[in-house]
Amino acid sequence: MAAVVAMAMTACTGKQKPAETATDTQQTFEEQQIKAGMNVQLDSLTNIWLGLQQRGLFGIDESGKPTLSAEQKKVLPDYLFTPESLAGKTETLSAMYRAFTVFSIDKEVAALYDMKDVWTPAIEKLTSEINDPALKLSLKGDIKYTKDNFEEMNKKLYKLEEENGRANHFWESAATSIVEQTYLLSVNQDILLSKMTDKDAEDITYRIVLLLDAFEELSEYNPQLLQMLNVLQPLGKLNAISVDQLRQQLNDTKEEVAASRAKLFDFE
């Protein structure tokens, strides 16, 4: 479920209020260094999830797609973001790329349960309203992540976003992705923790904490990230050194993480 992290981190632009802007301001050297460090941690996080998927996190059908067992499919997820649940909440530029991020992730979850696809039309609608080269490459399938090429793909996407003045939007999408996937981890522990080692648990939470620290630093240069920083705060309580500890921490913070997820569309 969470291995789509990198693809969902592309940012998008579209209809916006007069006060909004889609262009990054001139970056300072310190800001560039913070973003470079964040990219390294995102690469590491992507690597861990792709590694878990290769260990047999899900079954694989004849076409090579991940699947769930018939028993697992009996209880359909009722917590996914859908176009209906976000109706009227995706008018601003910021909300549009947050919606694109969660729709991209939740569409993959729904596919595992053979649910009717209500996400693709919404994603296509967003695509028709934006003009972002990186996003278009991802949706066309020209950028496809594997265990061997994810660093190259991440660099390609991020370079495109920087060249088009979208780097700050990239980071808001990244934060959205981290929140959504932490929530999915929280409510799908039996599946997602089953193949995880203690080292995986430590590496994942360590990198999330590092990214949260970096987001706090980055928000000093980008006030638009302050609201997202508030949403991310509960994730800082995840600092496990074992799978059992991660499970306990996910249980302890379950309500806080769910509340943070809901806040993704409570601000402009």
Give the gist of this structure.
The chain has 11 helices and 2 strands; from the N terminus they run αββαααααααααα.
Describe the protein in words.
- Strand 1 and strand 2 (66-67) form a beta hairpin.
- A two-stranded antiparallel sheet has the order 1-2.
- Helices cover 57% and strands 1% of the residues.
- It is mainly alpha-helical.
- The protein is built from 11 helices and 2 strands; from the N terminus they run αββαααααααααα.
- Residues 1-23 have low confidence and may be disordered.
What is the topological layout?
Layout: H1 29-54, E1 59-60, E2 66-67, H2 93-112, H3 119-128, H4 133-140, H5 150-163, H6 167-187, H7 189-192, H8 198-219, H9 226-232, H10 243-252, H11 254-263
> Which percent range describes the beta-strand content?
under 5%
Could you state the oligomeric state of the chains shown?
single chain
Specify the structural class: mainly alpha
- Following the backbone from N to C, one meets helices and strands in this order, namely HEEHHHHHHHHHH
Distance, first to last CA: 27 Å
What is Rg?
A: 18 Å
Task: Tell me the overall shape.
Answer: globular
Number of strands: 2
> Mean pLDDT across all residues, rounded?
81
Number of helical regions: 11
